[in-house]
Amino acid sequence: MKRTPITLGATLLGALFLYATPVLADEAKKEETGKDIAFNKSKGNCLACHAMPGVADDQQPGNSGPPLIAMKDRFPDKKVLRAKIWDATASNPGSYMPPMGKHKILSEQEIDKVVDFVYGL
Fold first, then answer.
1. Percent of the chain scored above 90 by pLDDT?
2. How many beta carbons lie within 10 A of that of residue 41, not counting itself?
């Protein structure tokens, strides 16, 4: 059987699909955690301003925001913490913290994950 560019291309495309499918399936299984989002420089980027427990010195947490420690004591009502992350300027118009929800920096689901992570600190 003579191989034409079309059959060769179809064969290569099929092989690529068979190889890529398990990789894509594995990636889809890994769900991003609140910590992943908080540490992600293009998403939450909490470390740019906040120190928190368990962060290695080489990650160089910032100090312009309050340290994220004893969060359950500081925010007994988890909804207040969520509101602060969603839009810190609502309760403090001079806040440097970006309004993560109001400006759609994070989705509602991502904010919920970050709140769960931060609340546990």
1. 59
2. 8
Domain 31-119 CATH assignment equals 1.20.1730.10: no
Instruction: Determine the Cα–Cα distance for residues 103 and 105; give it in Å rounded to an integer.
Output: 6
- The answer to whether 84 and 114 are in contact (CB under 8 A) is no
DSSP states of 64-116: SS----SHHHH-SSHHHHHHHHH-GGGT-TT--S--TTTTTSS-HHHHHHHHH
With a threshold of 0.90, does the pTM exceed it? no
Q: Which residues contact 12 (CB under 8 A, 6 or more apart)?
A: none
Task: Give domain limits for the chain.
Answer: 1-30, 31-119
